[in-house]
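Dear Dr. H.,

I hope your travels went smoothly. While you were away I took the liberty of generating a structure for the chain from your last submission, since the lab meeting agenda had it listed for discussion. I wanted you to have the full record in hand beforehand rather than looking at slides cold. The sequence, exactly as received, is reproduced here:
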Amino acid sequence: MNALNYSPKDPRAFRGFVEGVQKLNVYLETNNGEQLTQAENYLTQAIDSDPRFLPAQYYKSIVLTHARKADDAIRLLEHLRDENAPFKTEILYNLAFAYAKKYKYDSLVKSIGLIREAKDAASSQKRADLVLLSSAIEAWIFAVFAGRSYDHPDDFDQRKRKYLPEARKIAASVLEDRRLRKLPAETQAAVVVEAHNAAGIALMRTGQFSSLFPELRDSAWRLSFEHFRSALSIHPRDVRVLDNLCTLRLVQASKAIRGGSAELAKQFAIEARDRAVEAISYNPHDQFRHYRLAQSEYLLGNLDAAHQAAAQALKEHGEVSESRLRALLSATNTDNLSLILDLYPTD
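The corresponding predicted structure, in token form, is as follows:
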């Protein structure tokens, strides 16, 4: 989208817009949380100066999604869709992402329909960049949708059987697509990182539920790690990938504990903690990674550190339920590993 085609009436709006987009771009390169906060402030100023300046609303929605403020992002994007803005495909793509970031069953179902709509629109426009980006995000949505029950256990096995193989297939097709090499370097990198991240999640869950996929029982977690490592080789500070690598190690630690392999469990829990700490060092304003840090410290027996991390998680934005955070906070006065292990069942 070329913002110059939608210049605002108030020059202050355009200055705020330019500063905000620059800060957002720096965040996407560095995952520095302070840049994300500044981007939100500048774009809010731009909108306040000219409420009809649609590009400022669009970019603010992207900022809000990355800041774990999905509901606020959705409100902006739904408004933009109602306004019939010319950059409709980009709106659909980001709206699908924002709905998925709520990590709720109904929102994920909605995001699947939206990302398919975005792919169709991108194909009709012959926009290879948006087709590949949408496909990579679709793979991520499928992997997320199949990864947890989201209080809908009745169709959980069906979702795992359907969407985990599909996520792996779509991610692989994106990485093998010849059009990828023709994209600008920055766009190509974004697509590749997103596809590797999606494949990593899908394979993590495939290994977690390996009784459904016996052919991958011995390789799924190794392949998952390799995809996450490939993503980080391109974008070493990508906090979303670091979060998922932390989750992988927590799943593996939980299985090792259940299997009586205390030393192996400790190694996995230490790596989970290290990845959470690394992600927090880049962007500390995220509930999810403090929650993961608390879980890692709890498995390691560091109850005071787990308590501090859980308390910090309660102060940040995110989609982790308050009841779950408070349960972990309370449990740091005891030694009840089932509180963590039950979150990471394995076959």
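Two observations you may find useful: The two ends are 46 Å apart (CA to CA). The chain has a mean pLDDT of 94.

With kind regards,
E. W.
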